[in-house]
UniProtKB/TrEMBL annotation:
Pfam assignment, any one: ANCHR-like_BBOX
Coiled coil (residue ranges): 210-284
GO MF entry, a single one: zinc ion binding
PANTHER family the record matches: BONUS, ISOFORM C-RELATED (PTHR25462), MEIOTIC P26, ISOFORM F (PTHR25462:SF296)
InterPro entries: TRIM45/56/19-like, Znf-RING_euk, Znf_B-box, Znf_RING, Znf_RING/FYVE/PHD, Znf_RING_CS
Keyword terms: Coiled coil, Metal-binding, Zinc, Zinc-finger
Domain RING-type, residue spans: 22-65
UniProt-recorded name of the protein: Uncharacterized protein
Start and end residues of each B box-type domain: 100-147, 163-206
Gene3D superfamilies, sorted: 4.10.830.40, Classic Zinc Finger (3.30.160.60), Zinc/RING finger domain, C3HC4 (zinc finger) (3.30.40.10)
PROSITE patterns per record: ZF_BBOX, ZF_RING_1, ZF_RING_2
Source species, domain of life: Eukaryota
CDD domains in alphabetical order: Bbox2
Length: 301
């Protein structure tokens, strides 16, 4: 129960923090398409954007990073299923909380408000359809939860897209149930036989591809953490060296100033001594001069 409520809260947080907001229209995503750079935008937003771009029939330039994605048309771009799931679940959550339009019955054409949801059929049901649903023998075992249970967080709404396997664009009836490691994309059985297997491409199951991808990501994260630690230590050493350099520089400046003050004091003392010596010599010279021009003056004394 607690984890269900937590899931519901985290979903609301996703909407509030703008994770489900298209960067172009700044509204909640509608039919989000994903580019090769992994940035996503609404289908309609990309269609409008392509009108102002050159070579838009062969490629679309990402307005966020500038990278080009080759395409035969905006509609042919891959849908971001993860975002589609989150947007649908967020919209249902808003409706359950009374923030959006009322949830309608998906089993009849009466446009009645839904009161519950059949988890096996994946439909919201009105009161009448719920009664009819439970009368049928083949549906008596179906799990049905009321909207009140969804609102309280006792049960969390999960989109059917979570369990839906995407279809091949070339062989539209085929599921994309294989992963080509060589091309790094999902392929169907027909594509694997006609294009990939014959070329010697390495094929695996999506589950194995996801497992390997997670391992690769874990290794990259470990390397990144190791690099981060090394950079942190290097930064600390750099700061320490800078502090020592600053301290040494300040000490050198202090010693220079101290030595300069000592030298200035010594020169001042020498200046004072030389001035006194010069004054004494000057006075002696004056006295001798006075004797030369007045020899009797000294005799009278």
């Amino acid at each position: 129960m607690a984890s269900n409520a937590s899931d519901s809260q985290s979903l609301g947080k996703n909407v509030k923090t703008g994770q489900l907001t298209c960067p172009l229209c700044t509204n909640q995503f509608k039919e989000p398409k994903i580019l090769d750079c992994l940035h996503s935008f609404c289908l309609e937003c990309l269609q409008k954007l392509s009108l102002n771009q050159e070579d838009s029939t062969t490629a679309i330039k990402c307005p966020t990073c500038g990278r080009k994605t080759s395409t035969t048309g905006i509609e042919d771009l891959c849908a971001n299923l993860s975002l589609c799931v989150l947007v649908e679940e967020a919209q249902i959550q808003e409706q359950l909380q009374g923030q959006g339009s009322e949830i309608k019955c998906q089993s009849c054409d009466e446009d009645n408000p839904a009161t519950c949801r059949c988890m096996d059929c994946g439909h919201f049901l009105c009161r009448e359809c719920q009664t009819a649903h439970q009368r049928m023998t083949v549906m008596k075992s179906h799990k049905i939860y009321t909207l009140a249970q969804f609102k309280s967080g006792e049960v969390v709404y999960k989109s059917e897209l979570r369990d839906r396997t995407p279809k091949c664009k070339v062989h539209t009836e085929q599921d994309l149930n294989l992963y080509c490691n060589t091309c790094e994309r999902l392929v169907c059985q027909a594509c694997s036989a006609l294009e990939h297997g014959s070329q010697g491409h390495a094929l695996t199951s999506p589950a194995e591809a996801v497992k390997k991808c997670k391992q690769d990501v874990a290794e990259l994260l470990a390397k990144a953490e190791k690099t981060k630690t090394a950079l942190s230590e290097a930064r600390k050493e750099t700061i320490k060296s800078q502090e020592e350099l600053d301290s040494n520089f300040d000490e050198i400046r202090r010693r220079i100033s101290q030595k300069a003050d000592e030298e200035i004091a010594r020169v001042r003392q020498q200046e004072h001594r030389l001035k006194e010596e010069a004054e004494r010599i000057y006075n002696d010279a004056i006295f001798l001069t006075s004797l030369k021009f007045n020899p009797h003056k000294n005799q009278r004394h």
